[in-house]
Design brief:
By secondary structure, the protein is mainly beta. It is about 0% helix and about 45% strand. It has no helices and 11 strands. Strands 2, 4, 5, 6, 9, 10 and 11 form a 7-stranded mixed sheet that branches. It has a 4-stranded antiparallel sheet with strand order 1-3-8-7, with no helix packed on it. Strand 4 and strand 5 form a beta hairpin.
Length: about 130
């Protein structure tokens, strides 16, 4: 059984930074791509960033390009999302999800059917 647990969320002022982490358990975690999604109140869940199984390929939504960086530390079974220059509109619950395609690339797939495990989410609030 695979479990994902997000951490690192909190309250930050506009322009500030946060680093989210997604700790994965279970065998072969490092063999799968992982994505970060976010969901703001009253809105759909949106894809933010993705990283391939080997960390060589990444994907970013246009709204976060140049500000967010996704990375993976397979020795720690952890995916990080470094978020810089945060804006009010980045406020949301952030979720990590494991792509169901072993040895897959980073991609912009958003349909839940493509992901087999999800974390519980961590709240990020950007406010002055």
């Amino acid at each position: 059984q695979v479990q994902l647990e997000e951490s690192g969320g909190g309250l930050v002022q506009p322009g500030g930074s946060l680093r989210l982490s997604c700790a994965g358990s279970g065998r072969s975690f490092s063999s799968y791509p992982v994505s970060w999604f976010r969901q703001a109140p009253g809105k759909e869940r949106d894809l933010v960033a993705a990283i391939s199984w080997d960390g060589e390929d990444t994907y970013y939504a246009e709204s976060v390009k140049g500000r967010f960086t996704i990375s993976r530390d397979d020795a720690e079974n952890t995916i990080h999302l470094q978020m810089n220059r945060l804006k009010h509109e980045d406020t949301a619950v952030y979720y990590c999800a494991r792509d169901a395609t072993m040895y897959g690339l980073a991609n912009d797939r958003t349909r839940p059917i493509h992901y087999d495990y999800w974390g519980q989410g961590t709240q990020v609030t950007v406010s002055s």
